[in-house]
Amino acid sequence: MPLRVNRALALGGMLGFLLGLLVLIYTIPGRPYSVVNDGDQGLSRLVNEFRASWITSLNDLTRESAERVLLVLARTGELSPSEVDAITSFLDAGGYVLAYGHQDFLKSLVDHLGLDVNFTGRVIDPVFNVGSRFYIVANSSLCSGESSIVVYSPLAITRPTRSIVVAWSSSLSFIDLNGNGYYDMIEPMGSFPVAVEIEYQRGRLIVVFTELLLENSVIDHNRDLVECISAGRQIVVDQSEVRNNLIEYSRLEIHGHRGAVYTAILIAVLLLVAYYVLQSK
Amino acid sequence: MRTTMNTVLAITVLVLAMFSAQMPVLNAREHGTPCDQDCLFLLAALNTVLDKALQADAYGLLLSNYMLKACVNPDLRDLHFVVYSTLQHYYNLLSEHRAAVHSDTLFTRLAVNLKRIETYAEKLHGCSHDKEASRALVTKIKLKVEQLVNKVEKLSEVVLQYIPATVKPEKDFYEPGETLKIILYKNASAVQVSRPLILLLPDMQIIPLNYTITITDETIQLDLEIPGAMLVEAMEPGHLTGRSTVSFLIALETDRGLRAIRIVKARYGTPGVQVFIPTVVKRGERVVVQIQADDYYSALIVLNEEPLLNATYFLQPGDNLIEIETGNGLIKVGLNRLRLCINATLRTVSRCFEYPFYVEPRYPDIDVHIPTSIVTWTGRFGIAIYSKEEVELYCTVSSGFESKSLKLRDEYYVELYTGLFPVQTLLITLRVLDPSGTFDEVVLTYSVTVVNLPSIFAFLLVVVLIPALLGERERVFVSIIVRSLREAGVSALPSIDRLHEELLKPYVTVFTSSIVKLYYKALGKIGLRLPAPFETLREHYYSTISTRVLPHTAKTLLWKLLVLAERDLYSTRKPKYEDVHKLYEDVLNAFAS
User: Fold this and answer.
1) Residues A19-70: pLDDT tens digits?
2) Which residues of B touch A30 (CB under 8 A)?
3) CA A45, A49, A50: angle at the middle one, nearest 5?
4) pLDDT tens string B438-473
5) Which of A130, B273, B397, B465 is deepest in the core (most CB within 10 A)?
6) What is the ipTM metric for this complex?
7) How many alpha carbons lie under 13 Å from residue A220 in its C-beta half-sphere?
8) Nearest CA-CA partner of B287 in B364, B359, B341
9) What ranges in A80-205 are assigned the alpha helix state H?
10) Is the torsion defined by CA of B45, B50, B51, B55 positive or negative?
11) CB-based contact B40 A19, cutoff 8 Å
12) B468 at A interface, C-beta within 8 A
């Protein structure tokens, strides 16, 4: 009897685990900035429509290919010193980097680069927007002529040193200092920088102080930006944050180049376990 | 079989449920309801637009166009539309060059609609989340509306008294310095013209102008020039700030008063200047500012709020180079700002451009040879410092225990004291100064692990030898002290009757041993001295009992009682009280017999 219970435990546990993994991988949306996330905050459309590839470690960036690559660095968490070294090495070799993401990531990036930047609040624009005052239209000098980009509630920054402001909000925007989403009299109204470019000898680093720039929810508004910045370079998306999360990493591998193989193995194991369960007496 | 299947299914569901912890929390992204209007913002924006309108700044027209698309709730939408289209109308009126189409009705309607701005502002105040702030804004807005209405009325007084005339050429925008020909037909206007006037709108500021009058039998021809930007800025400073188009009213001073001819718009250019300046330079290097100009300009160059040149700098068409030494005292290490203010010309307005650049400190080229770890016999170690600069540098080297100052030559060697610790990590600080100011101060720190061999040997000596030596002496010392105290203590003891209570106090209060109490009681009953606080039970036995002439049996029994008392104090195998009490009675009997 105990042996039967132990077997039931093992079989049930395995079956539940495999089914759960499959459900998570195929049905639940992934984390922000994931290339296999089809939701608003995912980068699946960037990959599919611009034929972007991805890397799971910044050490995979090679100096030899730097001049042919635009790295999209979108993150939630902080950068480690070794990651910063990899990025600066890539820039020195002629690579282009477009960085944006959550405040923790942006803060660690500007701190490591030695830019004297303070974040004062989020910019809201009730007039120059694309349907919501949080998705604002910012003027930009990144592309030739008068161009604009759509960013999600960007962080207002003090004028940083050693860099050029390349995008700024309209003069009817304001900084939401108290975070209530509405204008208050003490809140400054005007045009604020939302993106900067740092010159490197051969490379180019553009930092946009927003959480959403190329995600599925805004990419339609920023196609021109992608095309003019990449200018024929291969777009590579950094997915090294995903590496620390087993579910996400599995999702990435399964949706990746060898996805069919991994899926087949997973389903085969599942069928095997199910068969064994049904046959057991 | 069925039971096993049920168990498997149950466990499967349980494990699946555990995966729910992995499901990402789907944060509702703030999309904002499409018409979640912000009334205080709308008030602030209206205030800004009115500011621009009062100056007839074309940017106000642009803002009005955009504000028409702003998010407003249905109950305010109509009024919002009326307000901003009225402001558009106001701008159109200022630029309408056919004065003949102006009518009293248009101006009246404009004035009435401008008044509706106040109603709109009050409604916005009603839905504002900050009533105090919105009330202050409404008050300002009402004042501005009143000023705007006054301007419109003043303008209407002149414009409605117009004289039909032919203007050549007929254009939407005129260039500064361009000559306008105004032809009046004598039979169409029975007035005597004294001079033409150009009035800057909306304030009706009279601008001096050059003109000629040619009178024929049938016509009066006036040739006048559109004022240049320099003149406009001189007459009304700040009027051209932030904009490039200006509306003028051309009027005539006649014997019947002021008569309007035409409202014309002039377009002024901005200085065609491009500035190239490096964003980062090292102190000591020159900052080369390249200014590309498309015309002749005069400019003031300001560096960190101080004028760079005492005179005006003249720019020529093409490349102009300005070289700024970073050691000139105006430039500091860190962020600097260069402002180029270009004065107005005939065709271009004045403009200031600001360019930040960063000056990095300049450090001397020195080479420091310092080991990461050393083993020293002398308690000192050396550092070699090589300076590759020609200037004389001063260096202060500190180890925490010693600090030395020296002048750096081509090569220098300095020794520092490491302290007494056998093994330690020293933080060596080098501070290099340049009195001439060519280089910036640099502070370098190094960590050095120092193994001080003499200290180690001394330490070993102390640790190993001295305790061994002191051990014997210590024992002698302690026993002398103990014996002295014992003898002194005995003589100082009070009568025996109270003595055992005093002496038992530590045992009773600290150990609460009833067995020891019995032993003491036995000693008391027998009439023997009780143990002093400084002696153990055995020491007391050897010194007091074993040396006495007593029955052997009694001594043996008393010894047994002592052992049991000790067991009760120190051992986990406590004796039974009943057994000890019996022994106690035996002791008494033995001594009694």
Assistant:
1) 776 676 666 666 889 888 888 889 999 999 999 998 888 888 877 788 899 9
2) 24
3) 110
4) 888 889 989 899 998 988 888 888 777 766 666 666
5) B397
6) 0.78
7) 5
8) B359
9) 81-92, 103-113
10) positive
11) no
12) no
